[in-house]
Amino acid sequence: MDPVSQDQSPAPSGKPEGAELLEVTSQEAPPPPPPPKTSDLPRPPSAPSPRGAYITRPQGPQRSARVEGSVDLFEPETKPKSKRVGPHGDDDDYEEENESCLDGAMVSHPKPPQPPAAGQAPGGPKAPRPKLHHPVRAASVPYETIVRPAAPHLNPHAQRAFSVAGTADTQAQSGEDFRVHLITWNVGSAMPPEDMTGLLGLNVGDGNTDMYIIGLQEVNSMINKRLKDVLFTDQWSEACMDRLSPFGYVLVTSQRMQGVLLLVLAKYYRLPFIRAVQTETTRTGLGGYWGNKGGVSARMSVLGHTVCFLNCHLPAHMENSEQRMEDFESILQQQQFEGQAATGVLDHDIVFWFGDLNFRIDDLEMQVVKSAIESNKLSVLWEKDQLNMAKDSETVLEGFLEGPLKFMPTYKFDVGTDTYDTSGKKRKPAWTDRILWRLRAKAAAGSAPKLGKRASMSGLTSGTKVTQHCYRSHMEYTVSDHKPVSSIFTLQFPYMVDMPLVSLLVEDEWNCVADAVVTFKVAPSYPRSSWDWIGLYKVGFKHHKDYVGYVWAKQEELDFQKQEHQVTFTEEELPKGSGDFLLAFFSNNMNSIVGVTEPFQILFPSEQPDATPSDDSSDLSSEDDSTVVPTKTRSHSRSPGRAKPRDLSHSPDGKGLNPADPETDAVDCPAEGGGLPASGLGGSTSAGDAEL
Ligand SMILES: O=P(O)(O)O[C@H]1[C@H](O)[C@@H](OP(=O)(O)O)[C@H](OP(=O)(O)O)[C@@H](OP(=O)(O)O)[C@H]1O
Q1: Which amino acid residue places its CA nearest to atom 13 of ligand 1?
Q2: ipTM metric
Q3: Cβ pair 438, 399 in contact under 8 A
Q4: Which residue among 140, 289, 439, 455 sits deepest, i.e. has the most Cβ atoms within 10 Å of its Cβ?
Q5: Which secondary structure element, helix H or strand E, spans residue 671, and what is its range?
Q6: Atom 27 of ligand 1, nearest CA residue
Q7: Would you say the CB of residue 433 lies under 6 angstroms from ligand 1?
Q8: What is the pLDDT of residues 101-131, one digit of tens each?
Q9: Of the candidates 601, 604, 648, 644, the residue with the CA atom closest to the CA atom of residue 629
């Protein structure tokens, strides 16, 4: 079932839309209504929680143990040129590369601006609800039907959220930028390093990355390790979530096939715009029976445009270039997604193909390769790179683009060093680790009508643009025989077709239990389920199961006539401490968050505001980069719908702060650690630019 197709289905006439959609999707939904009392509901297994109180709570949607504190991210000073001495000598040209990368990075990115009865929480008595009288926070407020003069109790934040989310001023928006940060790393069965700040760009980023896509290969998949990973989250996923959740990134999806792992995390306020997430795996090892080699992918619609991320580990060794191409083709052939929007990988508007693709440098002797690296004459090697050569001859690679390989080959190193292989194997250095992208071909003139509504809505015909800001390696990481490679892109979508399916309104602060009322509105096309729920999350949460409380948002018959619905959190569902929280509406049919508020504060009179993240929150203390100051997000945070929320750019205590310059909204390509160079594309008109 394709959630995109659901949300675009016209409502059948003569019937309440919600009812019809419910029928359409009923196969996937758990047993039919009424699911009402929390205590009656089956509770899927979940990770053990340190909060005993919640573990013993009646069954409900799955949750996990930890929630993180909120954080701020700021723009540090302009990064000094990093001058490096390569493992083999000369450094001057590296400095030039660093320059060109920074130039390329300085691109400005302006962002456009059944259920419990109403008011009754599952399992709890209905609290009489006074008319909302406090300022209300809204996040994702959508569709035309609810456009009307803002109620007097809506504060400016809420009104801004309305307009940004695509109601009143949608027409004025010409497009939407979406920044993605991709990483590929063959981790050679190593444990995650303590410090991943440089790799994730947390020390130089401006906090404007919308999504992280992390593709790993050779994640330890020994049998005992795998068993442990099935029971608990694997260490790499955990490490990435630990590092990124304090900055507001939430796991969207993950997929693992033996050692090949793909993680997708997005800023919490982007979640309602990321839909129809599906994953695929293809084994190509041992003739297709073993998953030591192959590809894992995640596809989704981002702001209404289809995007696919494919992480591959292709066969090793010089002589297997053809096999690599065959395996790639076989992966493309085998990976088929449900729904009409984009079934094959290459049907997506944008495809990112990355991983340990294992291509080598042909012909040239070891000495020639090493001396080209030492003298930084990397271009000598480009034409002998097997993948570059294949780009000229293999039809399947048509349309794939890649930035210039201005970084040293990322394979093979002696573990613990940045010295190329000195073992008996004496592997020739190679650019095994790559990140490529491809835009779907323009629809031929006159073919648009055949593509139908969905195609025309997904922006296939004009304006979709991908800009690569940097493409680089990270030499400072030595746990594996490969170096990680990362790249930052801006995806520019011609217009914003996606609007949140559910909007949530809450009071600005919850000062007493009676404040814990949530008003929500659903888009006419939203496929409601009686198993939808609204989760209360501590700011900095890792994934949708990380809620600290929830209420069911099930549909009553009377709801069909109502535009606005209300649910109430009971005292039992509320956190015991104070802090910054947000609410997210989880769609059972779409299996994703479809509405989210901006952060608000819970501060009950008996409680003192937390100066630090509470109990189980965040491992921020382990963050030792003084330039990164994750901190709590106060309730004055910007609307999730508002682009580039700089609210994550300050710290209440002012410690170590170097706030982002609000005037400078640039992508910074992080320099390599340890004085090593950054490399990337030169200027905003780089070869990495591509327009549909
Ligand atoms: O056996 P499979 O599962 O295919 O895994 C291979 C082998 O371990 C190769 O070792 P060997 O050469 O001993 O066969 C190794 O090459 P290197 O030894 O060159 O590292 C490859 O590393 P990667 O190149 O990192 O994929 C790895 O993918």
Answers
A1: 425
A2: 0.95
A3: yes
A4: 140
A5: none
A6: 316
A7: no
A8: 222 222 222 232 233 333 333 333 333 333 3
A9: 648
